[in-house]
From TrEMBL:
Protein name (Swiss-Prot/TrEMBL): DUF1285 domain-containing protein
Native source organism of the sequence: Pseudoalteromonas shioyasakiensis
Superkingdom, natural source: Bacteria
Occurrences of domain DUF1285 (ranges): 17-82, 83-170
InterPro entries: DUF1285_beta_roll_sf (IPR023361), DUF1285_C (IPR048342), DUF1285_N (IPR048341)
Pfam family, one: DUF1285_C
Amino acid sequence: MQSLADLEAALQAPDKPFDQWQPQNCGQVPILIDVQGRWFYAGSEIKREAMVKLFASVLCKEAGSYFLKTPVEKMAITVEDVPFIIVDWRFEETEQGLALCCVDNLQRAWLVSAKQPLLLREFEGVSVPYLQLAHGLAARVSRNVYYQWAEIACSDEQGYYIESLAKRYYLA
């Protein structure tokens, strides 16, 4: 059985030092991320996953706006809701207990934890769980994953929840 620290290290990609980068704002680039997490450049969908992953690796949210940020430039992009969608999940057994591991639409795995909690937000008039990520980013839980969680959810006086690392995350 692995430790939580080992699991986190295995799942995390090297983090960009966004706080240290202070590039000049270069304006807007015609990139749009739609509500389904699809990326478009000037109206054409970017189909190359490697290209989307590269852009996603330099994506951050600052002061309510999304940017592609490097050490030398910072370009605003448009995001209709959030940039990522949780499309799959699994439990990982750790020394600290079961950890909920979420997989996004770019096949990246994220651990639900105090650092990356599930938070409820409104989406299309319904309260939906979102996974809070680093650098102001978030991933919306897909309807399919939400229904899978609903089938295994526990309940208490506050409502239905799913647990990760012995912490409760409410689904509605």
